[in-house]
Amino acid sequence: MRTDLPTGPLEELVDRFGIETVLLATVDVQGRLKGKEHDARTLAERLRSGALSPEMCGYVLGTDLGMTPPSSGPFSWQSGFGDVALLPDVENPRVLPWLPATALVLADPVSGGGPHPLAPGTVLAEQLHRLVRLGPVPLVGIESEFVLYEGTARDAAAAGWRRLRPAVGDNSDYALDQPFVVREFGRRLRQVLAGADLPVEAVKGESGHGQVEVTFPYGQAMDACEQHVLFKHAAKTIAEEQGLTASFMAAPSTGVGSGMHLHVSLHDCDGPLLAADPVHGIELSELGGHAVAGLLTVLPDLAPLWAPYVNSYKRLQPHSFAPARLAWGRDNRTCAVRVVGHGRSLRLEVRLPGADANPMLALAAVLAGIRHGIAEKLTPPPAATGDAYRWLDAPLVPRSLEEALGRFEASALAGELLGESVVAHLARVARLDLDHHAACVTDAEVERGLAQA
Ligand code: GLU
Ligand code: MG
Fold first, then answer.
1. Using CA atoms in the order 286, 291, 292, 295, what is the torsion angle rounded to 10 degrees?
2. What is the mean pLDDT of residues 359-382?
3. pLDDT tens column, 11-53
4. Do residues 174 and 212 both lie within one domain?
5. Phi/psi at 186 (nearest 5 deg)?
6. Angle CA 137–141–143, to nearest 5
7. Residue 149 in domain
8. Residue 334 CB–ligand 1 contact under 6 Å
C-alpha cells in the first residue's frame, strides 16, 4: 500500500470495520442501486491516488425494470451503449451491515464536466435548487409500505408467480402480535439500518395481508431519498436472507396498495413556513395554500414520476386509503394531499406516490408542484371534508399509465418545470413498461375470457 498520500475516509472505514467489499453504485431510473463490487483496499487506494476514474454502461440511466433499453434516445441501441463517468462521493462511505464486511460509495453520473442531466439525483437536485432559490427549504420524511411474502423471489418464479403467500394472513394494521417471522424481519431491519446510520422512526403492521410500513425521521431532501434507496436494498436483502420476499409493487395483488407517502415541510431562516400560526396552528399560511394548490395542479401532469408503471395505477382505488381524487384536506387520509401536524410540525403528506416510485423522481415532482404553486400564487380549491373519494368537485387521478403518459408528453407545464429532455427521457422509459404490458396476456384475461368469450 502507498503511504505518501493522506488516508481517506474510505480507508479509515475499511480499517475500522474490517471491510472487504465496497459497492460503488449509482441510482437507476427505478430507484435501485446499480454498480460493481470492488475489493475494498484496492478501490480505496486507487480512488485516493486518482488511478481510477469509475465508469459504468450509461444505459443503467435509461432502461426499464427488466433492463430493456428504449428504442430511441441517448440510451437506445443507436447510442452504441457507451460508458457514463461516475463521480464517487468518497468523503461519505457507509457501512452496509446487511451485507458481510461491505461498505457503499455512492456515485453521481457526470457528463460534460457536470452532473448528468438525466440522472435521477440530478433531476431532484435541480428541483430542489429551483425551490430554494425562491426561498423555502424543504424538509422531507418518507413513509414506505411493502408486502412480505413467504418464500424468496426465486421460489415465486419457480411457482410461476402464482399462489403467493403473504407472511401474515390477516389485516394486521397496528398489530403488535405479528407472526415471529415478521417480528424478526422488523427487528433485523431496524438493527442493520441503525448500524448504517439510517435510524428508523417506526415499523408497523399495515392493513394488506403481509403489509408492513416503515417511517423515517425527517431530514434534508436528498439525504431522505438516498436513505430510502438504501432502506429498500436492506429490506429486500434481509427478506431474502430470511426466506421471504419484500415486494414494493404498488399493487402486488388485487385490492392491496403500497404507498410511499412523502411528508414535506417548508422553512426559511426565520422558521417554518406552512402554518399560519407557527406555534400551535393547524391552518395553512398563504404560502402553504399556494403549495397545496401547486401540488394539485402539477402532480397529475407529472404522474409518471410518482406512478411509473402500468401496475402503479391499480393502487389508486376508491376506499383503499390510496388517493383516487386530487383533493386536499386537514388530517384527512382519503385525500391526495393531507395537511397534518400543527405549528412547527405542520406538513404536507403527499399520498399519491406508490412504493414502486423512485423517491428522487417522486420528490422532484412534488417540489416542482410546490414551487409552481408558490411562484404563481395559486389558490387551492376548498378543502375536502369527510370522504374525499366522493368529493366530486375534485378531479380523478390518472386512471392508467397510458392516460398519464399521454398527459405528461403533451404537457407544456411538465416541459417548463422539468425541461423537455427530462420529460422525453422519462416518457421513453415509462413507455417501455406500457409496451411490455400491451403485448402480455394476463391471468385475469384468461380467467374471464377462456370459456366465456
Ligand atoms: N396503503 C395506502 C396507500 O397505498 C396507505 C395506507 C395508510 O394510510 O398508511 O397509499
Ligand atoms: Mg400506511
1. 160
2. 98
3. 999 999 999 999 999 999 999 999 999 999 999 999 988 888 8
4. yes
5. -60, -40
6. 150
7. yes
8. no
Q: Write out the DSSP string of 83-100.
A: EEEEEE-TT--EE-TTST
> What is the number of structural domains in the chain?
2
Atom of ligand 1 nearest to the CA of 211: 1
In this structure, which amino acid lies at residue 307? A
Q: Report residue 78 as a C-alpha cell.
A: 443507436
Distance (angstroms) between ligand 2 centre and the Cα of 175 equals 13
The three three-digit cell numbers of residue 246, written as one number: 419484500
CATH code at position 44: 3.10.20.70
Three cell numbers written together for 17: 470495520
**The C-alpha cell that represents 101 in the structure block:** 464486511
Structure letter (DSSP) for residue 166: B
Which one of 306, 312, 320, 350 would you pick to mutate in the ligand 1 pocket, going by the greatest count of ligand atoms within 8 A of its CB? 320
Residue 252, domain extent: 127-443
Spell out the long-range contacts of 382-386 with Cβ–Cβ below 8 A and sequence spacing 24 or more: 383/328, 383/329, 383/330, 383/332, 383/339, 384/325, 384/327, 384/328, 384/329, 384/332, 384/334, 384/335, 385/329, 385/332, 386/332, 386/334
